[in-house]
Amino acid sequence: MKIAVLKEVAGAEARVAATPDTVKAYVAAGHDVVVVKGAGDKATFADALYKEAGATTATTNATAVKTADIVLSVTGGDTKLLTAMKKGAAITGLLNPTDNPKYVAAAAKAGVTAFALEYIPRISRAQSMDVLSSQSNLSGYRAVVEGAGIYGRALPMMMTAAGTIAPAKIFIMGVGVAGLQAIATARRLGAVTTATDVRPATKEQVASLGAKFIAVENEEFKAAETAGGYAKQMSAEYQALQAELTASHIAKQDIVVTTALIPGRDAPILVTKKMIDTMRPGSVLVDLAVERGGNVEGAKPGEIVTTKNGVQIVGHLNWPSRMASDASNMFARNLKAFLPLVTAEDGSFAPDWVDEVIQGAALTRDGAIVNARLKG
Ligand code: NAD
């Protein structure tokens, strides 16, 4: 089949959906690959490397997709591009279907199959295709490293002839994929690390990383995990208890990284202005949930806010793109694991429509919106 690799058009997106390594594998499997000029530039993958891997190049996204059976992208490109594609062809990427229904409608209208990678079911078989996990893992790492860079002091304990520096205290709120990596990173850097979550399963995970778990462990906590492994929206009573516990803890922290999300809802506010007022000058809050409304009151998307009492609130967007080379490598490998599900034995493009991974990811097919999550 013919595979096209897009140059990303969304704002400051620096990632690319295929690397020279994955292109080499596609070519070895007998596929034709066309990569848009400059697609990998921001992720350190020059055009020459793709050529060496066996790809041809195209000057624009529109020309690259014209004859492609499947288009690989990070964020889906613009809706106009969909009309330049062949009817029946597919595009894959983080398509943000819940917030971007116009894109889904445009894909249906163009007769294109749109595969939203964030909708791939999080089942064991699909772990190698799990873009959400591969990218969140890097975000969690980067949040701690950048938080440490902005925090003007050392993280580990240092005993020197000139005296002792006490270790920094880092608190991770939300222990999903990003939170776990944030804990591991904070520990590696020598900080005294604590973490909280509403899902009981995280307690053991936090302990296994050598951090201390802090949470309101009442009856509601014991039932806070959905069958899908995600957090439930907690009651107002629970949130009040959680805030009380958090307030006294946060006042003593140097860096707080928040990652708490609830599927289909705004992120819960976990750190209020009142709590921030009790923090020491120079402390840093890194809000990874800022794109979904934020866990920290006063966090601004894309900005670093300094409060009156000298606390910095980091609201960077698109953390994986800040590590474009590694993030692209992982994203590209996730896609390489996904592609066999749309490939027939003879190498032609033929999605396995009865496969639950394909059914989970497919938003549109033959001019219609087919995804159960969107229809439901
Ligand atoms: P997420 O991004 O949806 O949320 C991040 C974390 O925030 C979660 O741990 C959640 O419990 C927590 N949270 C929500 N509300 C909170 C609150 N009020 N206070 C504190 N914490 C709060 O999570 P994720 O990283 O996508 O992971 C969610 C689950 O999916 C985890 O159980 C993870 O292990 C699981 N998972 C499974 C697979 C797989 O089986 N293939 C792959 C990846 C993740």
From TrEMBL:
Keywords: NAD, NADP, Nucleotide-binding, Translocase
InterPro entries, per the entry: AlaDH/PNT_N, AlaDH/PNT_NAD(H)-bd, NAD(P)-bd_dom_sf
Highest taxon of the lineage: Bacteria
Keyword Cell membrane assigned: no
Keyword Translocase among record annotations: yes
Residues annotated as domain Alanine dehydrogenase/pyridine nucleotide transhydrogenase NAD(H)-binding: 148-315
Record-linked Pfam families: AlaDh_PNT_C, AlaDh_PNT_N
Domain Alanine dehydrogenase/pyridine nucleotide transhydrogenase N-terminal: 4-139
Class in the EC hierarchy, top level: translocase
Annotated catalysed reactions: NAD(+) + NADPH + H(+)(in) = NADH + NADP(+) + H(+)(out)
Documented EC number(s): 7.1.1.1
PANTHER family reported in the protein's UniProt record: NAD(P) TRANSHYDROGENASE, PROTON-TRANSLOCATING NAD(P)(+) TRANSHYDROGENASE
Role played: The transhydrogenation between NADH and NADP is coupled to respiration and ATP hydrolysis and functions as a proton pump across the membrane.
Stated name of the protein: proton-translocating NAD(P)(+) transhydrogenase
Annotated source species: Algimonas ampicilliniresistens
